[in-house]
Amino acid sequence: MIETIGFDADDTLWHNERIFLQAKEKYTRLLARYHEVDWIEERLDATEVRNIRQFGYGVKGFTLSMIETAVELTEGRVTGSEISDIIVYAKEMLAAPIEILPGVRETVEELASIHRLIVITKGDLFDQEAKVARSGLGGFFDEVEIVSNKKPEAYKRIAERHGIEFESFLMVGNSLRSDILPVLSLGGLAVHVPYETEWWHERATDGELEGIEITRIESMAELPELVRELS
Fold first, then answer.
1. What is the residue extent of each domain of the chain?
2. Is CATH 3.40.190.10 correct for 17-95?
3. Residues 6 or more apart from 98 whose CB is under 8 A from it?
4. Which of 80, 103, 115, 119 is most buried, most CB within 10 Å of its CB?
5. Which helix (H) or strand (E) holds 177?
6. What confidence score (pLDDT) does residue 200 get?
7. For residue 222, which of 160, 154, 172 has the smallest C-alpha distance?
8. Cα–chain-centroid distance for residue 191?
9. pLDDT value for 118
10. pLDDT at 208
11. Sites in the chain below the pLDDT cut of 50
């Protein structure tokens, strides 16, 4: 019997990656007079991944990586006006409307009447808490867990805090690497809901997926029926 269902937030409950892609497009246009777009994107991606350990996930860390990359790519010639533009992009990202994905509201409302629901997401604490509140979905969730990573150890800590047994726990998310594989490794259940795009840093390798059966649905609207079957 499934007692607790965990939901990833970004790109599972609402759109998120498209906001980053839009900001990245503005950023590459801003620096296009210095370098080719592909080169700018490649260096920004590398800087962002390198900085995750220090800055974590989210808009603020992404912004610092944009500024650092701009300084490096221009050899210090980036102007104050251009840095100001980058900060404007960040503020636009933080203020972007929350666009709930199709079927999400109806699904969480239905499941909340039967199961304990928890948001388990990575990112900046202030930003993620604000998104949960602005989404209008907060009332359906019993708990919100914002973590620095989604390795098995992080899920174990969450389980201990909330008295969760993995045999009765289901995780739902768009990332195989963060939402699915760690929970399966702990004996829990997991359902993959692919998003329209995938951040390359979250892509699971063939080696990570070898021998593992993934349960996948194409829309959140399919989840209630699947939960009934699994239970």
1. 4-15+98-230, 17-95
2. no
3. 14, 131, 134, 135, 136
4. 119
5. none
6. 64
7. 172
8. 15
9. 98
10. 79
11. none
